[in-house]
Amino acid sequence: MQPFATADLIDIAPDTPSCQTPFLSFGRRQRFCGRIRTVRCLQDNGLVKQILNTPSEGEVLVVDGGGSRYSALVGDLIATAAQKNGWAGVVVHGVIRDSAAINDMDFGIKALGTNPKKSAKDGAGACDVTVYFGEIAFVPGHYLYSDEDGILVSPKPIEAA
């Protein structure tokens, strides 16, 4: 991954949408970027687990959990699988659990917060569909850039100057 800062990238491409959701960062990898894959689910992480247990070439999984704080959609076991399978990071419009273990990992997750409660595992939801939150669209195949300042989404890679 080339070094980047979202502030510099948006200066280069000022029309790039930025996510307005105030996410918290988890894991030691504060900056991550890659092509977007998506899951839409509510209080059920079956599809999240399934996708993150498959090999990746550095994609970012964007999980639209509807902003629910009822139960966690990612925990340390799923995050470990994602890291081992080559995922760049995960953005969860919902909550995670096992944050202390995740914070020791060389992996990046953005989420709304934490809740120790497990989610259902039925696999309800949809994969690789456009999801919307934070006033932007997360389109599968587009590029996501995440760092300490926020999240940008672009249909094509943004080249740093």
Shape: globular
Largest sheet: 9 strands, mixed
Count of DSSP strands: 11
Oligomerization state: single chain
User: For the CA atoms, what is the radius of gyration?
Assistant: 14 Å
SS field, number of helical segments: 4
Specify the helix fraction band: 10-25%
SSE blueprint:
Elements: H1 6-12, E1 24-26, E2 32-40, H2 46-52, E3 60-64, E4 72-74, H3 76-84, E5 89-96, H4 99-103, E6 108-114, E7 126-127, E8 131-133, E9 136-138, E10 143-147, E11 150-154
Parallel strand pairs: 2-3, 3-5, 4-5, 5-6
Antiparallel strand pairs: 1-6, 2-7, 2-10, 8-9, 10-11
Describe this structure as you would to a colleague.
The protein has 161 residues and is an alpha/beta fold. The protein is 17% helix and 33% strand. It has 4 helices and 11 strands; from the N terminus they run αββαββαβαββββββ. The protein has helices spanning 6-12, 46-52, 76-84, 99-103, and strands at residues 24-26, 32-40, 60-64, 72-74, 89-96, 108-114, 126-127, 131-133, 136-138, 143-147, 150-154. The strands form 2 sheets. Strands 1, 2, 3, 4, 5, 6, 7, 10 and 11 form a 9-stranded mixed β-sheet that branches. A hairpin with a 2-residue loop joins β8 and β9. The two termini are 15 Å apart. 40% of the residues are buried. The mean pLDDT is 96.
